[in-house]
Model the fold of this input.
Amino acid sequence: MSINFVPNNIPEKTIERLSEYRRTLLDCLNKGITHLYSHTLAGIHGITAVQVRRDLMLIGFSSDTKRGYDAQVLIDFIGNILDDRNVMNIGVVGMGHLGQAVTQYFTGKRSKLKIVAAFDIAPTKVGTTVAGVPCYHIDEFQKKIKDHNIKLILLSSPTDAAGSFVQPIIDAGIKGVLNFTSKPLNFPEGIYVEDYDIITLLEKVAYFVKECELHSRKK
Amino acid sequence: MSINFVPNNIPEKTIERLSEYRRTLLDCLNKGITHLYSHTLAGIHGITAVQVRRDLMLIGFSSDTKRGYDAQVLIDFIGNILDDRNVMNIGVVGMGHLGQAVTQYFTGKRSKLKIVAAFDIAPTKVGTTVAGVPCYHIDEFQKKIKDHNIKLILLSSPTDAAGSFVQPIIDAGIKGVLNFTSKPLNFPEGIYVEDYDIITLLEKVAYFVKECELHSRKK
Done:
């Protein structure tokens, strides 16, 4: 994970948790639960109630009801913090298995974020659609980014090719990249990059499993 | 991300970075670069040289050569920390687009970690293989976990179904879970869980893009 700028005082981890709280609150509303205490929300997320209250204090949310937080009110409040007023358009670079999976997985999940275009070089992919999203040749990148008003790129190309997309992404004026490849990418200040590498995380989980086993054997 | 136990003194973030350093070092070796300075490694990863040296100090690695770190020596050293002596077997629960993508993406990438079995309920998937990995019915979970000596579960089921796999995973004696669903899962102490939710990360990147735009408009 690399942070090139922090535009205000809300910590990255709080932003992540707000997104997670909102999903839990939506889930609760669907089940007919309209109010939640901070300790209930904390329990679901495996953190402390103090952490939940601190996060909500940071965004200026307060609740004086004895029934806990009103789920719908809190959902709207978090939405005002996290979401753009307009829908934010996303482009996917690389429509291999991972790009296709993410496109299909994501479609319809969040109304304020929308995957609107994909890019690849393979003749079998260019000109097709996945979950209603058209796939263009990477040669059309600059034009289609502008046509579709794309603000955020999800990079799911083969790792070897990842570096070649850095300059086009900068040139297109993109300000946010979610990088699924195993290659750390150097973007200039002002572009927010989140690295999301599966192998790193699998290796990390595997390490803790191994340590846990060594530890039990020693006992 | 939830940490249920920390088996030794190496911080989680250091473990992640060690995995990333190793991948960069392997990449350098492939390009014929045999030695790297800490500031070179730091530059590639967008961190400080002090951070790199601190991480390597934590694992007891020191280098007195003026040519920088010997890539192969450091790769082996990191391997001794991260890897199990034997191959660690992984099971994938949920062979939708995401499960299939991860299985195909991962196959052959790391010799010490191996996806050996997948589980689903759909008749179109049970009995098939993806990238050489057999897909079993979830009813066979306990048996196949034992047969294949699986230590780690990668959970890529639909989010709604995620909760139903917690007890079977506990019963099977699994000690590590990489959770791709949008649902936070409560596992007991002693099971290491890494949540890896795409929507949370996309929302986070989108938030920073939005803030960056608001900030530029104000100028």
The CA atoms of residues 95 and 177 of chain B lie 16 Å apart. The longest strand of chain B covers residues 113-120. Residues 7-82 of chain B form a domain with the Arc Repressor Mutant, subunit A fold (CATH 1.10.10.10).
